[in-house]
Amino acid sequence: MMLQLSGVHAHYGPIHALRGVDIDVQVGEVVTLIGANGAGKSTLMMTLFGQPRASSGRVVFNGEDITALATHAIARRGISLVPEGRRIFPRMSVLENLQMGAVLGEPANFAIDLKRMHALFPILEERGLQRAGTLSGGEQQMLAIARALMSRPQLLLLDEPSLGLAPLYIKKIFQIIRELNRDHGMTILLVEQNAHHALRVAHRGYVLQHGRIILAGGGRELLANPEVRAAYLEGGHAATAA
Amino acid sequence: MALALQQLINGLTLGAVYGLIAIGYTMVYGIIGMINFAHGDIYMVSAFIAVTAFTALSMADISSVPLSLLLVLLVAVLFTSVYGWAVERTAYRPLRGSTRLAPLISAIGMSIFLQNMVQLTQGARVKPIAPVLVGGIDLLSVDGFTVRLAYSQILIVLVTVALMAGFTYLITKTSFGRQQRSCEQDRTMTALLGINVDRTISLTFMLGAALAAVAGVMVTVYYGVVDFYIGFVAGIKAFTAAVLGGIGSLPGAMLGGLIIGLIEAFWAAYLSAEYKDVATFAILILVLMFRPSGLLGRPEVEKV
Fold first, then answer.
1. Residues in chain A closer than 8 A to B197 (CB atoms)
2. Quick check: B178 and A101 CB within 8 A?
3. Which of A165, B105, B227, B280 has the smallest number of CB atoms closer than 10 Å to its CB?
4. Within 10 A of A182 (CB to CB), how many other CB atoms are there?
5. Taking the CA of residue B128 as centre, how many other CA atoms within 13 Å lie in the half-sphere pointing to its CB?
6. Do A75 and B192 touch (CB under 8 A)?
7. Residue range B278-296: mean pLDDT, rounded
8. Residue A124: inside a domain
């Protein structure tokens, strides 16, 4: 087992955002976590990195308890995050953003990895010296993904990668997720509001509501589940609030 | 004309020193968003370290000027960096995540502490050193007024130019420089990439202190005297330089230092030497009123 969360609680200011979450991710899997806005999805991602730190429960990565480690130490274990809102460094060039992603990597691998990213996202080569803040939203998302991959992580976390993007980019992003997993064996934990796309690409999925896992199962299985269909696929997100 | 040329030389020398100190203000502001009011006193401490080191070297009968300068620079940079590190570690880091005002008050406290520490241990009187670098080049003489370029002025300008070039390279081209800049833009994201942000902040303080240390040694060589209060005035002037250039901007700090040095030199020559500090403070007030983002700074409101 690569990643295991057991009984994780987390508070975000006064909000009790996670109320005993148990999830696990096996090597080579794509696991998705779906849920409405405010269900605690992003908090869960950040809690893996100790921001905020879990108030109780355990996070175990490759057999090691990482619950209490510093954020940078957790990243150094081989976990890489594409955060919500992308958080690229806007006043640095595209190339510099990629160099930042490679800080943990072997210097000898940099040229190879850069070439790989350029092959995956040609726009990043074209715009290499441009300030990252001037890229379009979709391009910034590509950059955020490439930056996360530059450290050759064992586990890739993606937080709402399709949020606010044009349909063309959404398609491209899910295609890349599929390719990374199928062709490179990348283990991926994907947080999404776009349940339809996420469940189709994932081996397994969890449904998070009000900080609790209320459903778990295979991707196809959840996709066919009438509750999931009603709440996340046909009716939209607002209907699940109660 | 001759007087103007002389003041140009003096102003550039002063400006180089202010610029070196201003970099420390602007870098620390950039990375943690606070004005390190103890930075001027770090510079003062380095001047005292320089005095001690020069005295020790003359007692050890080391008379080679380049050798003693090099040794004093090394000692001052080393010890002053440790001061910079310790100030951040004890007075600012425990307050990270608290209100914006708390580290500012702590900085003022640290400034008073350093002044008093030096006053108590070194005495309140002005401390002189034996002249280190004497002489200069007489450039021209008009009506009995000789324009003189002192060797110490050449040294200050050359060392400053070299340091600023090296420093610009460090910040724009190296991995540490990128980490420093990424911390400025998004500290959490920088940590998520596996970078120890606390360490980067510590190094930033140490670098700022090291540059202030060079300024402290240079001023000791230039004026030959130090006292425990020099950090306050130089600190506020360098702070004004950083604000004028655009706080957070490195080229801005260098440019601001140069402008403040030149204005001060010309003001002293043509208007009033007694009121030369007024010029600097007037600039500080005017910039804050009419152009708070400075000459090269980014406007406060940024498009996201």
1. 72
2. no
3. B105
4. 11
5. 2
6. yes
7. 92
8. yes
- How much of chain B, in percent, has pLDDT values that exceed 70? 98
Q: Sort out which chain B residues have CB atoms less than 8 A from A70's CB and list them.
A: 191, 196
Best B193, B199, B200 residue to mutate vs chain A (most A CBs within 10 Å): B193
CATH number of the domain within which A39 lies: 3.40.50.300
Identify the helix (H) or strand (E) that includes residue A111.
helix A110-120
Domain that holds residue A114: 92-152
ipTM confidence score: 0.93
Cβ–Cβ < 8 Å for B22, B256: yes
pLDDT tens track for B186-221: 999 999 999 999 999 999 999 999 999 999 999 999
B303 CA: distance to closest CA in chain A (Å): 9
**For the sheet containing A30-34, what is the strand order?**
A79-82, A155-159, A187-192, A30-34, A204-209, A212-218
* Sign for the pseudo-dihedral over CA of A215, A221, A222, A224: negative
pLDDT of residue B175: 95
Angle at B31 between CA B26 and CA B34, to 5 degrees: 65
CA dihedral B270, B272, B276, B280 (to 10 degrees): -70
- The tokens for B173 are 């081209």
**Domain check: are A159 and A235 in the same one?**
yes
* CA distances in angstroms from A121 to A147, A173, A192, B173, listed in the order given: 11, 10, 22, 24
Q: Which of residues 145-184 of B touch A (CB under 8 A)?
A: 175, 178-179, 181-182
pLDDT band (50, 70, 90) for residue A19: very high
- C-alpha angle B57/B162/B159, rounded to 5°? 35
Say if residue A130 is in the same domain as residue A186: no
Supply the Cα-derived Rg of chain B in whole angstroms.
19
* Stated pTM of the model: 0.91
DSSP codes, B158-213: HHHHHHHHHHHHHHHHSHHHHHHHHHHH-HHHHHHTT--HHHHHHHHHHHHHHHHH
Q: How far apart are CA B196 and CA B206, in angstroms?
A: 16
pLDDT tens-digit series, residues B95-115: 998 998 999 999 999 999 999
Between chain A and chain B, how many beta carbons pairs sit less than 8 Å apart? Answer: 58
